[in-house]
Amino acid sequence: MTDLQRDIDFPSTDFQKGFNEGYLIRQHLPELANELQRALQNSTSDRSQGFTSGVKQYQLETQKSFKPDWRSHENLDDKDMDRANERDRSIDDPEPEL
Q1: Rounded CA separation 21/53 (Å)
Q2: Residue 57 has what pLDDT?
Q3: What's the CA gap between 82 and 54, in Å, rounded?
Q4: N or C end of the chain, less CB within 10 A?
């Protein structure tokens, strides 16, 4: 294994610490995380790179988990989904009048 490959597979301890700090600070104090990220943008240390990566990772995860109201039915269980589908059918396909 080359040094480059090892660095890619196993980030340094400083990078890991920075990543965890960035992730947690972004989760609990987003304004502070943004300020620190701006202050560290020109830094090339492993810890600052990890911090930036942790902030970005948290942002990606929260964007993926966000669903608009119109997609909220995707987390329903089967029973609730059947009710939602029945409601949709009654709205989309009204019964013909006799």
Answers
A1: 10
A2: 94
A3: 40
A4: C
* Token code pair at residue 68: 């608009």
Phi/psi of residue 12, each to 5°? Answer: -65, 160
Which residue type does 59 have?
A: Q
pLDDT digits 0-9 by tens, 12-61: 999 999 999 999 999 999 999 999 999 999 999 999 999 999 999 999 98
Phi-psi region of 87 (alpha: psi -120 to 50; beta: other; left: phi over 0): alpha
**CA–CA separation, 32 and 22 (whole Å):** 10
Query: Where do we find the tokens 């502070």?
Result: 32
Cβ-count burial 14-53 (b if 16+ within 10 Å, e if not): ebeebbebbbebbeeeeeebeebbeebeeeeebbbbbbbb
Contact criterion met (CB below 8 Å) for 61 and 19: no
Instruction: Look up residue 51 and give its two tokens.
Output: 């911090």
